[in-house]
Amino acid sequence: MQLNELAPVMGSTHVGKRKGRGTGTGNGKTAGRGHKGQKARSGGKVRIGFEGGQMPLARRIPKRGFNNIFAKPLTAVNVSALNAFEDNAVVDAAALMEKGIISDCPYGLKVLANGTLSKKVTVKAAAFSASAKTKIEEAGGKAEVV
User: Fold this and answer.
1) Full-model pTM
2) 140 Cα distance to chain centroid
3) Other Cβ atoms closer than 10 A to 135
4) Short-list 33, 26, 109, CA closest to 74
5) In a 3-state reduction of DSSP, which class is residue 10?
6) What's the CA gap between 52 and 48, in Å, rounded?
7) Residue 120, C-beta contacts closer than 8 angstroms, at least 6 positions apart
8) In terms of C-beta density within 10 A (0-12 exposed, 13-18 middle, 19 or more buried), how is residue 124 classed?
9) How many Å apart are CA 124 and CA 133, to the nearest integer?
10) Residue 34: what pLDDT?
11) Signed CA dihedral, 15, 17, 22, 23: sign only
12) Which long-range contacts does 14-22 make (Cβ < 8 Å, 24+ apart)?
């Protein structure tokens, strides 16, 4: 086999449509763009969210408060989920993922106080709600901020 004998597999390539090359081709005259209008023109594109001059949805809907686009939200876990661990276990994001309680934790973990805790566990997280911290300590565990 020589380099000049190489060819793509049959059917893996196809010849592109030649637009605007006569009416006999089926793609002549308007070349599949219809008649007139913005999308028939060269460079005739509309930007994302454009609604033909009507006030776009993103501007019609009211905005309230401050939305930080750089926020790194913490993954929330309730105290009741910590009952899945044995006594004296060390619970962190990796341990919760291993048990399947959370799927991912890109920015850190926050423990919330929903439910009850019956196990004595050491919890390592980025943040704790005040009541979650007291529930962990009342059960005999530790709440460590990482």
Assistant:
1) 0.60
2) 37
3) 23
4) 109
5) coil
6) 11
7) 87, 88, 139, 140, 141
8) middle
9) 11
10) 93
11) positive
12) none
Give strand ranges (E) for 9-145. 75-78, 90-91, 109-112, 122-125, 127-128, 142-145
| Alpha carbons 91 and 89: distance in angstroms, whole number | 6
Looking at residue 117, what DSSP letter applies? -
Indicate the domain borders of the chain. 75-145
Is the CB of residue 47 less than 8 Å from the CB of residue 54?
no
pLDDT digits (tens, 9 = 90+) for 98-114: 999 999 999 999 999 99
Structure-token match 């106080």, residue found = 113
> What is the CATH number that goes with domain 75-145?
3.100.10.10
Q: Shortest CA distance to 117 belongs to which of 90, 93, 84, 146? A: 84
Dihedral sign computed on CA atoms, order 96, 101, 105, 111: negative
Kindly indicate the confidence band of residue 143, based on its pLDDT and cuts at 50, 70 and 90: very high
Quote the radius of gyration of the chain (alpha carbons, Å): 30
- Closest C-alpha to 132, from 116, 119, 121: 116
